Input
Amino acid sequence: MTTGRPRAGMGGAPHGPEVRRIDPVDPEPSLVGRAARLLRRGRLVALPTETVYGLGADALDAGAVARIFAVKGRPAADPLIVHVADPSSLHRVAAEVPDVAWRLAARFWPGPLTLVLLRSNSVPAITAGGRSTVAVRIPAHPVALAVIEASGTPVAAPSANRFGRISPTTAADVVAELGAEVDLVLDAGPTRFGLESTVVDLTDRPPLVLRPGALDLEELREELPDVVFRPHGHDAAPAGPGRYLRHYAPMTPLVLCAGEEDELPVVVATALGHRGLRVVLLTMERAEPTATDAPGIVRVPLGSAEDLGSVARALYRNLRVADEVGADLLVAQAAPERGPGVAVNDRLFRAAQGRVVSDAEPSTVEALAEGGLATAVLPAGSGEAPPVSGAGG
Ligand code: TXA
Ligand code: MG
Output
């Protein structure tokens, strides 16, 4: 089985996984068949979707699903998304499909919307993290659809990263995250959205957005006007599945500048730079560093506020690039809270683990620059884990 497997460039690892280029539009049937056979045999296949790369296994095979949890280092209570290829398969995984689910399916599937429904007994409890519900979606990617269809089974696929880390948007990211623990990686190039699907719990009344994502909330509201979304920071509810604060995190501690003032991240980064810290500055285009920048600030542009779709698409890539600098701190600017900016900010907020600086108070910037910075910024706000530890990564 391993004969002739192409090496994946795993810097020193003895074996990379088998990585195969596959046509993103018209996937080669031989590769689709190979992936489907592996899935049916309980193996793990990393697949492109329109959002991020997923780590796929037969959702109905408890042993295969257990391997997903082991390879990702994912807590058993964090349920997986089950992917199907057509709406009629909903009945295989959900015990009840309300009318509203059919309406959403008709409008948004295939696409980056995940629905939480009551779980059917055919889905093993382990797939759903022991819950009575199941998350399901039809991905809008020819490769994912073809493989699911050929496998003849629903496919559980979390993002193909180690738990708590940045989701992969390329096959190379998958290899960097999971290495040889995946049986096959299908490489269809970079993903279209670059952020995960929007997750909506339809078993709650009113329906609740559990995770903002690639489907804009504005669009979702057109079909589901009563849907509730509590953005980060306004979330009084205890962390449920998918609400872990430490998530989507680079290894380097990240400070999030959330506020209207474009200058804030530059001021923060500059002040930190003058304190001798090596800083990567991730800003929207308008916040250009000025001549007052401290030396040693590396800039990674996040993109234009006028094109938040491309900010979202490049976000994980940019976080990986920023992480590779090996700086002491990343200072990121929040996006405008609209359209894809909502999901971008959700991920940045989680990456910051509570290290959020706001310019809401006029005196804040001055206070930071005057030296309250180290104490204001450096301690992780969540108290969950030391900021530089590789936990979850
Ligand atoms: O775009 C995506 O959704 C990607 C691609 C591969 O499809 N998948 C993905 O899966 O992001 P994952 O496992 O990384 O994130 C799934 C999220 C988690 O936050 C999980 O807690 C939540 O969905 N979730 C899954 N099942 C759930 C359930 N039954 N109830 C509540 N939340 C659930
Ligand atoms: Mg994930």
Remarks:
- The two ends are 29 Å apart (CA to CA).
- Residues 158-159, 167 surround magnesium ion (ligand 2) (CB under 6 Å).
